Amino acid sequence: MTLASGLHAGREAGAHPLARYRAEFPIFRDAVYLNTCSLGPLGERTRRRVADFCDVWEARGSSAWYDVWWAGLQELRGRYARLVEARVEEIALAPSISVAIATVAEALDYGSRPKVVVTSLDFPTVAYQWLAKRSRGIDLVVVESADQVSVPVEAIARAVDERTALVATSHVYFTSGAIQDIRAVAAAAHAKGALCLVDAYQAVGQVPVDVRAAGVDFLTAGGLKWLLGGPGIVFLYVRAELARRLAPTIAGWFGHRDQFAFDPRALELHDDARRFELGTPSLAAVYAQLGGLDYIEEIGVPAIRRATAALAEDLIARAREGGFRPKVASRPDDRSAIVMLPAADPAGAVRHLADAHIIADARPGHVRLSPFFYNLQDDHVSALERLAKYTGH
Question: Are strands 139-143 and 115-119 parallel, antiparallel or unpaired?
Fold first, then answer.
C-alpha cells in the first residue's frame, strides 16, 4: 500500500486526522492491530533507523562507537528527558523495566525503613524485586483493589508509615487501563518520609507525563509499548538530588565515571543518573527507539492523548452496545487506551480473533484491546463482531 492509497483508505473509513500515519505501519496491510499495550507495531521510520545502524556497523565496525553510537546514546537520553519534562542528567538507560527497578531496589537503605508498598494491580515485576529480598528483612505490603480497576490513594496512604522506604506503583494499571494520580501517591509517600517509584510503561507515549509536576522520585518506561521502539531499551528517571546521593550496590561499566580506565580496584560512579546504568546498551534497540520517538515527537503526546481517548470511548461504547461489560475506570478522564473485556476463555477468544487477522491479547479473565493513534473505529467494529461470535454476545 502506498502512502497515498493508505490516506485515501483512511478518509473512506471516516478516519480521525492522525490516522494518516496508519500507512507507515505495514502490519495494517494484512491485519487489524489492537495490541499496542503489549507491543507497538513496527513503523517504517523505526525500520529505517535500525537499517541505518546496521549500515554503520557494516561499514565502520567498532570505530563507530566513539562518535556515531556514543552520540546516539546521548541523543536518546535527551529525547527521553524531554518526553517526561526531566533533565538529561536525570535519565539512565536500561534493557528492561526489571533491570531499571532492580538498580533502584539495590540503592535504598532498608535499615530503619524495611517496608515497601505496592498494589495488587501493578505488573508483578514491581513486587518481585522486593519479594526476592524478603530473606534480608524486607516487608512487602500489597494494597488490594476492591473493584479490580483502581486503588484509592487513601488506601495507599494508610499503608505508608515511618518504616516505609518506598511506594512503588503504576501510572496506568496494566490490569484495567485506569490512570492513577501519581502526584497524590508521591505526596502520600513523602508525607511519611518515603520515596516514590512509578512504573510508567503503560503511560509514557499515550498520556502526558511530567515528572517534576508529579513530584515522583523515580519513573521508568520504554520502547516496547506506546513509544513504538520495540523490546530491549527503557529509561529510568532519577530525581537529580537522589541521583547524586544514592549509589546502587549492583554495578556495570557504563555506570563508571571513567569507564575506559578499566581499573578493577576502583569504582567511581557518575555524579548523575548514569550511575544507575549497568552494561553496554543494545544499539539496535536504541536506534529502534529513536525511530519510534520520531512519531511520538512529531505528533505530540497531547494530540495522541486526544485521539486515543476518543478511540477508547468509541470502543467502550460499542462494546457496551454489543452486550459486553468493559472493565474500565468509571470516569473517562481516568481511562487510558486499554480496554478490558471480561471473557470466560480469553486465550481462546484471542486465538479466534487471530484467525481473522485481528491481533489482541489475553489477560486473566479478559480480552485486552488497546487502540492507538493509527487505529480506526472500523477496527473496533471488526474486533467486536468477531469476538461476539466466539463469546455468544
Answer: parallel
Strands across the sheet containing 115-119 = 91-94, 234-238, 218-222, 195-199, 164-170, 115-119, 139-143
Q: Which class would CATH give 3-43+300-391?
A: alpha beta
Cell output for 309: 481517548
**In this model, does residue 361 exceed pLDDT 50?**
yes
**Local confidence band at 4 (pLDDT 50, 70, 90 cut-offs):** very low
Contact in structure between 159 and 142 (CB atoms under 8 Å)? no
Report the DSSP pairing between strands 234-238 and 91-94.
Answer: antiparallel
Which residues in the chain are classed under CATH 3.90.1150.10? 3-43+300-391
Instruction: Specify the pTM.
Output: 0.94
CB 93 within 8 A of CB 79: no
- CATH 3.40.640.10 in the chain: give the residue spans: 50-296
Angle formed by the axes of helices 301-321 and 283-299, nearest 10°: 80
Instruction: Kindly report the backbone phi and psi dihedral angles of residue 248, in degrees, each rounded to the nearest multiple of 5, phi listed first.
Output: -60, 145
Q: With contact defined as beta carbons under 8 Å apart, do 47 and 19 qualify?
A: no
Fold of domain 50-296:
Aspartate Aminotransferase; domain 2 (3.40.640)
pLDDT tens for 196-253 read 999 999 999 999 999 999 999 999 999 999 999 999 999 999 999 999 999 999 999 9
- Residue that has been written with the C-alpha cell 487489524 in this structure: 32
From residue 37, give the alpha-carbon distance in Å to each of 72, 150, 214, 367. 26, 18, 23, 12
